[in-house]
Amino acid sequence: MVKCSICGGAIPELFLEKIKGTVLRQPGSKKQYPVCFACQKKWLTKEELLAKVK
Ligand SMILES: [Zn+2]
Hints:
The chain has helices spanning 37-42, 46-52; strands at residues 2-3, 10-11, 22-25, 32-35. The strands form 2 sheets. It has a two-stranded antiparallel sheet. A two-stranded antiparallel sheet has the order 3-4. The chain is an alpha+beta fold.
């Protein structure tokens, strides 16, 4: 189960292990942050989303 890095909500996964949503990467880091659709709607730019990631 994949959880949203911002709200902690569950993100549904598609088959082939693809996440239904987006995965952010901090510049210069290999760490990935999955983000759910609800949070993508609240914060529209990648920069804003990254600022909210815990
Ligand atoms: Zn979320």
